[in-house]
């Protein structure tokens, strides 16, 4: 793993080589999760939008999500409205429709409306049935609605159909959490997952997500 | 921490999972220059990663939801939500299952279950699910008590309980200070500190006045439709950060007359605080009724109804005073204005002094000096004064 300070150095270097744009691009990556300073993160995103206008929709949605993480749902909604306007101006691409639906789902989540959130994620799947994020998120909503079995079934089905895509850290976290909730025999199921992962992934895979220890 | 009571092997297993809001998965992108050895490899890997944002793979805050990984902290005013699952681990069909969830605090026992009726039968590998919600209104130890009773297929009635203990902590430290103005207005400063471990978005901090007062909130800067918060862009409160909120309370007209006469403790109102954290997780607290000691006015109270902020030099100006008899006896008062020395200034704050009230019955004189300040300015454009 590259140490963080080296990443930072790597990010700052281009500005001294007369490539400030590249420096900005890399810096925004780093700043975002050190989200101790949300205000700075949001400002950085805004400046990136000027350099990368083609990413406007994704970046505005990203800022909206930052505000959702803080708990400022109203400001998040304003950003998501800007996303809808930006999508309308560029004409309807499926990826933009997906983006708008995902944002709507997150707002529903923030308002404790898991039914609506599930409906929005399902709408995304009508446009893009293989969308891994929508599939995972729909399953998560089902759990909050008290449908453990259904949720597990959906996630397990996804892993079996397309292990290359779904044997991902976040999906595995969710699966193992649900196994633990489901029964006392979760260890066996988790080990089965470990075997599936071992066939595919290299040594750098974060096996902590399987919660075997 | 859960403590299981059963010594015998039960056919059913009960599991509990606290449902805080899910979190958004974050990626750690790895990139390199175009001309570096890996070339496009890292970008390709990021594009193939299902949790990255398509078209903006370097964005760290993704859209993938992750379930809560541990119980976490719980604070007064938040809502405790939990998944309760009863699973048939055996190979036989189980009948008449009743699941009850109660919350035991130091002062009371509350029933949290959504339904109180028994489930007729539960096949092997099936489960009974319930999601319970409870707004936490007490600090300290809470115990979630889950009780399951059922009948085996041979007619044997069995029962077990599980206990889950957790602590409810205090989320905010609230300090209040009162300031009395020369008029009947009272200013309240509320100092609020976030004593949790994560940032809070303060959605609402309002003062609900008691019936004697009208309140004006002084925490927005006028301008635009909504008005901007006095706290500017920092719309959230980091752990251990403090904020001061200011409110102005004016007695209602029907109480204004009595305002000067009130002695002792008066009830001002209470603070209503609503905050949000990750993905809209909500908390709400109300303080108890805030009280204020009325300042002692003695027998007679002199208060100001109207006075200009700024006056011109050597020009007369009007002030309106209100004199209230705060004692229990009748008074016959005479008013006398005495000239004081005024310094020849071209400006500055001047104090109004020299008001004398004499109670002719008791032959007692009340002196009022420094009752207010006015700013005296020179009305001439050049420095002619």
TrEMBL record, chain A:
UniProt keywords, alphabetically: TPR repeat
Q: Which Pfam families match?
A: TPR_19
> What PROSITE patterns does UniProt report for this protein, alphabetically?
TPR
The record's section on InterPro entries has: TPR-like_helical_dom_sf (IPR011990), TPR_rpt (IPR019734)
Q: Does the keyword Iron-sulfur apply?
A: no
Q: Name one GO cellular component term.
A: Golgi apparatus
| Matches recorded under Gene3D superfamilies | Tetratricopeptide repeat domain
Q: Where are the TPR repeats?
A: 98-131
What PANTHER family does UniProt report for this protein, alphabetically? Answer: D-ALANYL-D-ALANINE CARBOXYPEPTIDASE (PTHR21581), TRAFFICKING PROTEIN PARTICLE COMPLEX SUBUNIT 12 (PTHR21581:SF6)
Write down what this protein is called. Answer: Trafficking protein particle complex subunit 12
From TrEMBL, chain B:
Against InterPro entries, the record matches this protein to:
TRAPPC13 (IPR010378), TRAPPC13_C (IPR055428), TRAPPC13_M (IPR055429), TRAPPC13_N (IPR055427)
The segment(s) forming the Trafficking protein particle complex subunit 13 C-terminal domain are 308-347, 348-376
Q: Name one GO cellular component term.
A: TRAPPIII protein complex
A Pfam family of this chain: TRAPPC13_M
Q: Trafficking protein particle complex subunit 13 middle domain spans which residues?
A: 172-295
Q: Which residues form the Trafficking protein particle complex subunit 13 N-terminal domain?
A: 10-168
Family, according to the entry, reads as follows: Belongs to the TRAPPC13 family.
Q: Quaternary state and partners of this protein?
A: Part of the multisubunit TRAPP (transport protein particle) complex.
What is the official name of this protein in its record? Trafficking protein particle complex subunit 13
